[in-house]
Design brief:
mainly alpha; two-stranded antiparallel sheet; elongated
């Protein structure tokens, strides 16, 4: 998880984290999208199991929530692959 820099005699080794602040920011945003997607998918339990509830096939559960989860997963991949040391 960390890289050790070359050290000279008598110096303490310093550790450098692999991910920087920008990587963690995108990771937390991705996690928020994933959590929001799963929250949008949940709910709407039926009181009577013999009666069909068409709310199961709503736009929110079929289109919006899975899209939010996929966007969150894409942000997670981007956050991992993002190189914060790259110069513009």
């Amino acid at each position: 998880m960390s890289k050790k820099k070359n050290i000279k005699q008598g110096q303490k080794p310093t550790r450098e984290l692999i991910f920087q602040k920008r990587n963690y920011l995108f990771m937390f945003i991705g996690l928020a999208f994933i959590a929001l997607g799963f929250i949008l998918m949940s709910g709407g339990g039926m009181d009577d199991h013999a009666v069909f509830n068409p709310e199961v096939y709503s736009f929110r559960r079929i289109r919006l929530a899975p899209t939010m989860v996929l966007i969150g997963l894409g942000l997670q991949v981007y956050a991992i692959l993002l190189n914060p040391h790259k110069k513009n």
